[in-house]
Amino acid sequence: MFGEKDCNVNPIQGVEAYNKALQEAGNQFYRVAMIPNANHMFYVTEKGCAREIMGQVQKGVPDFAPETLTVLASWLEELKGHFD
After folding, report:
1. What is the pTM of this model?
2. Fewer CB within 10 Å: N-end or C-end of the chain?
3. What is the predicted pLDDT for the residue at 81?
């Protein structure tokens, strides 16, 4: 998964590269997702910059992007029965 506003890793290149690599490897059981309004750590963000992340952490528990857990849960649900 990639945060749409990740300033550490280019999310567009990341999504494209992981999709290509996993397809070429023949992996059928993957999902690559871009989480809207999330930074590198999947916190809800405006800009995604390091200063903003540090400010969020210093204030306490940052606002975790709920879409991250939704994507992960639905992917795990898709895997049910494939690895019994």
Report:
1. 0.82
2. C
3. 86
